[in-house]
Amino acid sequence: MIKLKVAELRKKKGISQQDLADVLGITFQAISKWETNVTLPDITLLPKIAEYFDVSVDELLGLKPLQDEQYIPSETGDKDYWNQRLNYIKRSRNSLWNEDYMQFLIEKVWNITKPINVLDCGCGYGFLGDLLLPILPKGSTYTGIDFSEKLINYGKDYFDRNEYKVELICNDVLNYKSTKQYDLVISQAVLRHLNNPLQFLSKMISFTKDSGRVVCVEVNREFENDGLYIKDMNYGFLCEQPGFRKMWKNELESQGRDYSIGMKVPDMMKQLGLTDIDIRMNDKVSYVSPDSSDYLQKVSDFIETHSFNTQKTYEDSTIEQFMNHGMDRKEAEGYCVRHNRISTFIDQNINTLTYTHVLGLLITYGIK
Length: 368
Prior knowledge:
Rossmann fold, elongated, 18 helices, 434 Repressor (Amino-terminal Domain), 3-stranded antiparallel β-sheet, 7-stranded mixed β-sheet, 368 residues
C-alpha cells in the first residue's frame, strides 16, 4: 500500500501547498488530493518531487522510512505500558515453566537445601514467588519489586490468601535502595525490554549477598520466532521474519533494547564479576490439541497473549512503528499479512486447533 509522504515532507520544509504547487507547475488542489489520499501524483512527477525534498522515490511513496525520521523508542520499558498489561501477564505465565524443572534447578543444580531469601526484580504480580515458594525449603521468603502499581496491587491481593512470607514493593529497581541483601536475586523476561540491561543486572548484583546467586531468565528472539507450529499451516510461513533482523539491529543501536539478550547474559555476568556462571534452557514446550486438559482455556490464553483475536490493517499503527524501527513498508505489511492469516486460521478452527509452542527460555546464573 502506498502512503505518500508529501504532507510530512512539506511541513518539515516549512512550505505551503501553494508553494509546492508553484514549484511543480500544478494546482494546490492537486497537492491537497495527494495529501488526503484521494489521488496520487502522475508517475512522471515522482522523481521531481523526490529530488525537491531530497529523498528517494521509495521514501516519498512511504515504501521505506525517511532517513531523517526521528526514532520513536519502544515503550515496553515504561511503567505506564505495564500498568495496562496485567491480563497479558496472567495469561502468558502458565506457558513458561514446568514446575518439576524449577524443582530440578533448586534441588539438583543450585543445591538449595536450607531456607533462603529471594528477591525478584521486575516481578510483575509475583508469578515467580507463586512458583518458587512451594518448592523452596520451608521458611524461605519471597520479595518482589516492580514499578507497576497495578501489577503490585494485584499481587498483594493474591498473596493475602497465601501462607508464605511474601513482600511486594512498588518501586523502580534502578532507584530502589534495599536495606537487606538476598540469597537469590532473579529476574524473568525483564532485560529484553530495557534500554540498559547491564545497568539493571549490576543493580541486581548489588542486592545479592556475597556467595549469593543471581539468575536471569530471558529469551532470544531468533528462537522465539521459530517456536510456533500450527497443524495444517506451513511451518516455513509461520517462521518468516523478513525485516525483523533490521528492526532488532536498529532498536539496539538507537535505544539499547536487545532481543538477543538471552545469549549475552553470561558474558554480562562475567563482566560484572560473577563466578561459576552457567546457563540452562527451560524445558517447557506447550503441545495443545482438542484432547488436552483445559483445551479451551489454553487456546484462549494463546490467542489473547499473541493478539490473534485481532486483524491488523494497513492503517494499523504497527506498520508505522515497524517502519520507524527499521523495516520497509513491504516487510511491515508482510508481518500484518502473516498475523492476519494465523488469526483467521485459528478463528476458523477454534474447536480443532492443534499447535506446538516453545519459547526457548535461557536461564543464566552466577555466584557473587
